[in-house]
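ENTRY TYPE: paired fold submission
RECORD: A
CONTENT: sequence, then structure tokens
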Amino acid sequence: MRRRVIYSLLAVLMAVIFLINGCTTKASRLTPHEGGKIRIYTTIYPLYDFAVKIAGDKASVQKIVPAGVEVHDFEPSPKLVAGIYDADVFIYLGGSIDPWAEKLAVQLLKEGVTVVKAGEGLFQEELHEDEEGVTEGNGQHLDPHVWLDPILAKTLAERIAEAMAATDGKNEAYYRKNLEDLKKRLDDLDEKYRNSLLSTSKRDFVVNHAAFGYMAKRYNLNQIAISGLSPQQEPSPKKLAELAKLCKERDIRYIMVEAASSSKLAEVLAKETGNKVLVLHPLENLTDEDIRAGKDYFSIMLENLENLKRALNE
């Protein structure tokens, strides 16, 4: 009898300990980390850059995908995932660009982390041009590259700011002011694109990676892609021959390539057509060299604009 009472008391004690630990874990989510800052983890570069601009000096922002890494192939290590559990806010885009984040987000929600699926409801079907010049969806993939449209980028920024404000209420006014500043910069960027691209002599541009559908739609352009949404997709020789013919028929003089990806196929097409190669950066990630040069979302978007103007006016 006495032994049964002791076991019962031990069971109650262990239950209390687990309850206290659970409460402590939940409470620690609401307690700022070092320097009084909440901790924010983001997946891809555009989300990171917007989060940094909104957070200012009130939050610590970390990007999960390392600089220079191809985001379509990235999978976080168990050690990295363990570190993310210390987050107060977790921001991912959703869709095909960070699919590993979907399962992680479910677990983080259970741990009391504020989770933001920033691209929710924004994705559209990938558009491509076939050999007969017909633009259509492929019926399989949703294009995740919404940040390349400055107007859709504002929605991403708003969702990021809302999460920060909800998690760190004492700095809500600060985050909202920074959001308004960021949205104004995005509006200014949109105006620059409109003024430059809505009156170009050509509307078609060829890219090695179908990342620019939202940008093309916003400014009434036509993206003709060598490969699909993933830069690793390779077209057939027949498709390359059709693209070469299309370039000649439409007087397309430049092939646009990513800064960070292989441009072998684009160079083959350029050689076949006698075209030159220009960079069009998808901003999925930056290289260490980009970061050392002080580049960010806005500086690269302006570089993209200059190259698009050149390709569409010559």
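RECORD: B
CONTENT: sequence, then structure tokens
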Amino acid sequence: MGSAKAKNSNSAARKARIEEMQRAERARERRTRILTIGASVVVVAGLIVGGVFVVKSQSDKDDTASDSKTSGHFVTGKDGVKTWKGTLGRTHVAKTVKYPTEPPVGGNHNQVWMNCNGDVYAKALNNMNAVHSLEHGAVWVTYTSKASKADVDALAAKVKKTPYTLMSPDDKQPAPIMLTAWGKQRTVTSASDPNVDKFFAEFVQGKQTPEPGAACTNGLSQ
């Protein structure tokens, strides 16, 4: 009984923390939009007065952005979780990034994230978009064709009720079921493996998150 109460309490606390982060992120986005619009008006007015109008979009910058290489290696802890020791780039790029792991645990990525508000995808994802979701604090569940249907269905049900998670097939990965967060990864034996709950509890909006509270909606979806 005590264990159940503690689990419920921890779950409620985590939910409240995520909701507070989401409110802060929405407020930050509103302030950013207002500042951006104001700055744009001033810049455009100045350019028109000078007789010159230049448009330089963020996408143009991405096309020429240098790709800081991800370097390092995994270190496996006693709990079975692999932690990336080294550098994980965080630059937004338009060109294709080749990651040293599958699924990737971080690195340079596309400026648009995959929706990760409990989203379950039927097809493999573009790693560059999924990595952006990891940057926002999401846990990414992936599986191969070797995973049983029962496990896939059970994991999908868990993901659907958990904010800041997403799930997709990935036949390029080395194990049937894998869990990934920014800089963190582990293999689990099944949906009922207790390490699934442990990984979610620690890394959904966990301390490893580069951008806590950043949006997991209004991104890409299949």
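NOTES ON RECORD B: The chain has two domains: 1-55, 63-203. Strands lie at 71-76, 82-87, 117-120, 139-143, 165-169, 177-181, 184-187.
STATUS: closed
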